[in-house]
Structures are given as structure tokens and as C-alpha cells.
Amino acid sequence: DASGASDGDGSGAFGAAIERGEDVPLLTGSGEYTDDISLRGTTHLAIRRSDHAHARIESIDTSDAEAMEGVLAVFTGEDVVESGVPNTIPTAWDLPGLVQPQYRMLATDKVRHEGTPVAAVVAETRHAASDALEHIHVEYEELEHVTDPVDAVERDVPPVHDEAEDNVAFDFELGDADATDEAFADADRVASVDLRQPRLIPNAMEPRAALADWEEATGKLRLWMTSQNPHLHRMLLSAGTLGLPENKIQVIAPEVGGGFGSKIYHYPDEAVTAWCSMQLGRPVKWQATRSESYLTDCHGRDHVTTGEIALDDDGTIRGVRVETHAGLGAQLSQFGTATPSYLYATVLSGQYTIPAIHCRVVGAFTNTTPVDAYRGAGRAEGIYVIERLVDVAARELEMDPAELRRRNLVPPDEFPYESAAALVYDSGEYERAMDLALEHVDYEELRERQRELRDEGRYIGIGIGSFIESAGLSPSGLAGDLGAQAGGWESSIVRFDSTGSVTVLAGTADQGQGHRTTYAQVAAEELGVSVDDVTVVEGDTDRIPQGMGTYGSRSASVGGGSIARGAREVREKARRIAAHQLETSVDDIEFDDGEFHVAGAPDRSLHIQTIAHEAYLGHDLPEGMDPGLEETNFYDPENFTYPFGTHVAVVEVEPETGEIEIERYVAVDDCGEIINPMIVEGQVHGGIAQGIGAALYEGAAYDDDGHLRTRRMDEYVVPHATQLPDFETDNTVTPSPHNPIGVKGVGESATIAAAPTIVSAVADALEPFGVDHLDMPITPESVWRATGGDN
Ligand code: MCN
């Protein structure tokens, strides 16, 4: 029943470029973040971390630290074990044959990556706590370490975990290996690429933080934390880690300053904060420093891949074969197994009809920070591979890369399209979006200009990135079949208050996406009230009974879908009250701009806000109807949504210096019906910036000792605004048939598109030098080397 923006009563809220209601408090400093909250008697936690990549803990002497002024307690991993709590940081995604080593709050036997928590200091002040850290004496026996996912599996190194002698956590396959081999044998040509996708560090503006308050008398734990999914955190903390009943834990995510995936996960640190509060009976606060974030927030990507593509001479793609070593880091993070397996391999068909696909992924433990979903998660890695393959194939066939794409796009009448990589794409008009992007840059003319400039010794490159994304993982049954230990649904409450205002309680949790504005638009549209009448509440497990949270670009489609469904039920109850009070049948009541009126008699009307009042008075309701006007909705969509689009970049590369200048960046995105064009544009801007960051600047590196070399902002370079071009954005609108409001996600699309687009552009510029691929981040040095500068 997707009729999108026109589905409501016509109040016009859905689709309007309304300014974000959340911005004024955020910009004027009244937004309240975890670290802003202080309770009476708050103490401060600092965490002693290992400075070895791999070592056995011989002994820990805490006595000097304990004697320091202001220090209340120093705890080690043994103390946690002795406390008898379950002490597990559980994985939330199983895979066939998955090796799941023990993962405790504080290490007891070994440290497996630099930054592993080994002891916790609680003190009266933050400074006293952090000063005490260096007075904890830890003796280690150093062990040989490994940081590269291929080395971990193929070299003879001591295992990160004894349970996985060869460091293989899983060996995953998707697709039909035999059919793919046959396709390759029958095809005219094969092109291939070897590539690395470096580790990325999320860099949210606000580092992670937690404030725990254990109330002995009631046995209740309140935990404020930087969470993208408070209910999931509540669940994981409950059974797996602290052994408290779920209804004795309240997780509150106040303002959260960005996440990009990094705040989905259940880390040891927040759990230790809660456990310390339970030991001391006082509130305990932990605020990560920026360097701590670099060492401990889950990193993203870390793939080493060989991709092959088989084609006929006319450009028809026959098959794709991919083999990847994915670095998982030292521990399995919640979705660290799903990201490089299902979320990756299933998008390898991209926008194309590819009859045979086979992908194998070896998930490898390494002595590094755990790796998990980072904006684009899995889909970014997969689209990068297929887009690189299409470009190298075009080079091999001497065919224009836009033309090669065009010949293989899934045509509009093929939807729903079942890909050879096991997804069913909902809807798409791929060629329309690509044409629009190419029109924006005047593609044919640009190619002409490229030829002319080459004659003058100047090298411009035109990069194309066409993508699909699987957003909003659902339905729950499918997620469960694939190994998810959580559902794909979302929940909300839509409530009219007795004076006609509306409260929406949503199970998702914003970190900057603008839910308070867009959800208000969805509810206002359905209920025929003003956006200003709607207040949206997220991020508190005691106020919002259930939810799954915000990740995987699911909030608009699954969360918004739930709100629309709930609001429609509220509207229908109100319609029955209106019919009763207007003394007519329900079928005769029309709804327009918040007003219920009798068909053919517009004067006989009642406004929905008046009815809300009546619903709570309860004096004159239809026979048997309960008072009140609110609905709780659980919504489990029947499929993902599949946003798509084409981005085009024009770069100029100076081979002598290796400098890359982005002249133009055009993004055409299709996220179905658009709730708020301004917010969607903002999401696309942020996404492009992160994709360009990956392509040209970012990348975590470890030194020979297994220490993170990029541990400060001046060592790990995220692009500044001055390093980014103006973004030219446009949209096509192909509604999703799978949710009540026709929307598709947009939160990750542009990150997925931008990295391959930029790499495509640089490789295109360097065609005269015989360069068809350069690994990210493409630095001036790598360009200079690739063009023979060091010869
Ligand atoms: N939207 C819309 N119309 C659509 C689709 C979305 O108006 N057709 C709006 C939504 O209502 C929402 C926003 O765009 O306000 C993003 O929606 P959606 O694509 O559903 O994504 P989520 O809200 O679930 O956010 C998650 C997504 C992810 S996975 C990452 S990573 C990411 C991203 O959002 N992290 C972000 N964008 C971010 N933006 C900010 N500021 N900070 C982050 O950490």
C-alpha cells in the first residue's frame, strides 16, 4: 500500500523541506550529551589499556594506584570474574561454523590488541582516575602478533585465539560456484582486479561515553550512554554481561553526537562502567578521550580482495567471482560477522543483471581493534568491488564505462529483480538516474574535453559510481535465517494527548539524522496536524517500550513505516468517534486536512484534535470503545529497501606532483519518496564527504610492533570542508513498494557511491599511464609512483 507522500490527508508535511527542529538547541549549546549529565556523588572511571598488540598478562599490581588520593577502587579482570556476573560481550550474528572465542569485560589471560581493557580505576575526579592509570603495574609476556588479515591466515603465526588455530573465524560462501566457473569458461573475456580496502576509523564528533547509576535498594541500573540502539544495548547487557533482568535496566541515549556505526556495538567499556557502579553503589562516569576512540571504537572495512568479471565482447556481463580476506580484529563485535559476509556478498550484482556470482570470504582474527559496520557497512565494500570490476572491464573491452554499465543495467520492467547474489530488489529505474547524472556533467562534451586536454599534457578523469544498497534489513524471519540474533522490525507509539498535541515515541535512536523533524512530518501528514504539534521522543528504554535502533539506513523506512501505520490506526479510531458524534456511518466520513466531515456536507465536521479531547473525556464514545487515542505499532517489513543512484566525479590529476583536484561532484540519488528534501540532501553531503575521505585521505595503519600508527586527528586525516568540492545533488523518485510511505533509506548511500566514483575518476585520468586501479587512500605519493615518478 505504498502511495508515499500523497498517502496522508494532504497537510503537506511529508515532502516539505522543513528546517530541522533539533538544530536550535544543538547550536545554542542546550543539547544535553552524556558527559553533560551529572548525578549527586558521581565518580569517574578511567580504563587501563594494553599497550601491546599481543601478550600474556603475567601479573597486575594495583596497590600503588589504589593508594593514590581520590582513588576509590581499582579493578582487574579477575575481580569481574569473582563478582559472578556472566561477563560476556556477546556476538549478535551467527554464521555457519563460526568460532566464537570468549570475550570478557576486562582481559584476564591475554591482551589481543593494543587498547584491550585490563584494569579499571574509579576515582573522585576524572583527573585522579586517569593519573592513577600509570601507577598500575602490568607485567606482560609479549607474543608475536599479526595485523594483516591475509598474513593472519596464511603465515605461520601464533593464533589470536586458541580456539581458532589458523585465525579463521569463518569461511563464508555465497552464490553458485559451479555456475560461475561455467560462465567464466564460456565468456569471451575476463578482467580482474586485486584491491585492498583500508581500515577506516569512524570519527564521530562525540567520543563514546557512559554514566551508570546502580540503585541497590531497587536493584535497578540506569545507564546513560552514547547509543545508536538503547534497547539492543539493554538486551545485550542484561543476559550476556551483567545478569540483570531486562526490566531492571534503563538505557538512555541523550543527545548523541554522531555514530556512523561505531555506537551500535556493545563494548566492554560501557559494561565496565555499569559494573563499577554496581560494585561501589555510586554513579560512575566514563568519557572516552579522542585517542581512546581511535583505539577502541570498532573500525570499518579492512578487506583484501581479488575480483574477476567475465564478459562477452559486446559487453554482456556473464559472471563475477570474488575472494576476500576480511580482517575482523581481535574480537567478534556484534555485527562484525554479518558485515563482511551477507551485507557484502549480497550486493555484488550492483545495478546489473549478472547471471552467475560466487563470493568467498575468509573472516580472519588479527591483533587489531575489532572491525564492524561503518557507514555503508558491507554494501560499500561490495559496491566498490563491482564498480571497480566494471571499470577495468570497460578498459579491457575498450568500451566507454557508461556504455558498459548501460548495457547491463537491470531494466525497470524486471522488478522485483532476484539477483544471483540472493537479494530481491524492490524497484528501480537505474538508467534514468544514470542519464540524469551524465546530463549534469555534459558527458559527451566532457569526454571530448578530456581528449583535447590530454593532447596538452593535462589529465582529467571522469569517474562513475552506480550503486544499489540494501537498507533496513528485514523481515525478521529472513534476518534470523541468516544468523541475526535480533529482529528486523521497529516499534513506535503514536499518541494524541488530550489537548490535541501529538507525542511519537520511537524505538530508533538519532545521532544527527534529524528524526525529530522527519518523524514529525510523517505523523503530521497522516494525522492532518501541524508538524509543530508533534513531539518525537527517542532513546529511553523506560519511556519507549521496545525498539531496534538506528543503523543500516532503516529509520525512515522501518521506523517511519511503523509511525505511519500507528498514525493511520489512530486516525481510524478518531474517524469512528467522529462518525458517532456526527451521527453518521463511518463510511460517510471523509478526512481532509485534519477535519472529519460528512460526505457532501462539509459544514458537519469535527477536527481530529477536538476528537482527541473527546477520546480522553470518554463521555460520548461509540458503544464498547475504550477511551484514549494512541496506538502501539510493531512493524516488520517484508523486504529491505533498495536505494540506488549514480554519482559522477570530474577530477584533474597532476602526475608530476600526484595532486588530485576534484573539479565537480554530481550525485543523483533515488531514495524513493522523500520525507524531507533538505535532510536528504544533508545526508548525501555528509555521505559524499565520508566517501571522498576513504578514497583520498583516510586509512588506519599499524606499525611493525602492532601499534596503531594513526591515533590522533593529525595522523588520521578526515577531509576538511576546504578539501571538498561543491556537491551538486539531484534526485529521481522510485517509491519502494515495501513500506507504507514508499521511502527507501539514504543515510549511507552517498558514502557507498563516493569512494568508487572518486577512484574511478582518478584511474580514468591516469589511463594514458596504463593505470587502471589504485588502492585507497589514493595519495599524491601513490599517484606519483603509479605514473612512474619514482623511476
Ligand atoms: N529521510 C527522508 N526521506 C527518505 C529517506 C530518509 O527524509 N526517503 C530522512 C530520514 O527520515 C532521516 C534521515 O533522512 O531523518 C536518514 O534516514 P535513513 O536513511 O532511514 O537512515 P537512519 O535514520 O536509519 O540513519 C542511519 C544512517 C547510517 S546507517 C549512518 S552510518 C549514518 C547516517 O545515517 N550515520 C550518521 N547518517 C548520519 N548522519 C549523522 N548526522 N550522523 C551520523 O552518525
Describe the structure.
- The protein is globular, with a radius of gyration of 27 Å.
- It has a seven-stranded mixed beta sheet with strand order 3-5-1-12-9-10-11, sandwiched between helices. It has a five-stranded mixed beta sheet with strand order 7-15-14-13-8. The protein has a four-stranded mixed beta sheet with strand order 18-26-27-28, with helices on both faces.
- With 791 residues, it is α+β, with helices and mostly antiparallel strands.
- Helices cover 29% and strands 24% of the residues.
- α13 packs across α14, α16 packs parallel to α17 and α19 crosses α20.
- The chain binds pterin cytosine dinucleotide (MCN).
- Pterin cytosine dinucleotide (MCN) binds next to α16, α17 and α19.
Largest beta-sheet details: 7 strands, mixed
CATH superfamily of the largest domain: Aldehyde oxidase/xanthine dehydrogenase, molybdopterin binding domain
Model regions low in confidence, pLDDT < 50 over at least 5 residues: 1-7
Estimate nothing, just give the exact number of structural domains: 3
Q: What amount of the residues lies in strands?
A: 15-25%
CATH architecture of the largest domain: 2-Layer Sandwich
- CATH hierarchy, class of the largest domain: Alpha Beta
Rg computed from alpha carbons, rounded to a whole number of angstroms: 27 Å
Give the bound compounds. pterin cytosine dinucleotide
The fold-level CATH name of the largest domain is: Aldehyde Oxidoreductase, domain 4
